[in-house]
Amino acid sequence: MPGRCLALVAFVLLALVVPGAAVPATDHSSATARVAARSFVAIDAATGRVLAARRASARRPIASLTKVMTALTVIERGNLRGRVVVTPDATNVEPYREGLVAGRAYTRETLLWSALLASGNDSATALAIDVGGGSLAGFYVLANERAKALGMTSTTYASASGLDDNYNLSTALDQAVLARAALQNPTFAKFVSTRSHWTKWAAPTRAKLWVNHNKMLGTTPGTYGVKTGWTTRAGGCLIVAVRRGDRSVIGVVLASPSIWSDMAALLDVAFNRLS
What do you get for the CA distance between the two ends of the chain, in Å? Predict the structure, then answer.
């Protein structure tokens, strides 16, 4: 019995002196009690250090957060002013469609604005088919290879838009890792930090105004990205990146009943732990 007590004391002392120890994967502190999301994580955007988390490694559907990887895969291949001819498969998606016309050509840049700000599912699908060499299967190979390269060990991409969420699964922590990497790309960062964007459109529409679904860009000072998402199965999903002074936090909530209040509570906890 004394030996067990000494071992316990030694373990506690070791935990106290290990430098840079992260917050546990499951955070039961009273500070995070106000976050109702089933999974969440907040990381230091500069270092990637975990600041707060609950079931951050649980695999879940991520809805339109999927479009972060879709967009990054397209952006990293360049030629954004090149044109994409939309296939019928891209137009046969569920609501939140842009109304793309099969056989018509759109620039990759235009489709990215639609996918990232207005969460156009047909736009994301058209981009994925294009970058995948003419098929969604080709895109899934690229997306999963990129996820693996980033160290997203618990992610499987099987959708371009996030609508197909039976096998399209990730974790809060993997999505934070992805967002941190994507925001280092200036082009991606420009898209997701933009509150609204006008573009010319074919007649009879003539022009469209896309307003970013991430309303924290207009309500929370220092917000500079990144994406919202929702499906019946996934629930509310949100990734945001916020600066306060010279510190930045990336927060992710999955399966949230209220993404905005959950994220506000999570950010407060995270910034308190940074100070």
Answer: 41
Catalytic site residue from 64, 123, 170, 248: 64
Measuring CA to CA, which residue among 219, 215, 260, 220 is closest to residue 237? 260
Q: What is the pLDDT of residues 71-94, one digit of tens each?
A: 999 999 999 999 999 999 999 987
Coil, strand or helix: which one is 38?
coil
Structure confidence at residue 26 (pLDDT): 63
148 as an active site residue: the answer is: no
190 catalytic per annotation = no
Q: Is 123 a catalytic residue?
A: no
The pLDDT averaged over each successive group of 10 residues in the chain (275 residues) is: 43 33 55 90 98 97 98 97 96 85 96 97 97 97 98 97 93 98 98 95 87 97 97 97 97 98 97 90
Spatial separation of the C-alpha atoms in residues 178 and 68, rounded to whole Å = 8
Task: Output DSSP code: residue 226.
Answer: E
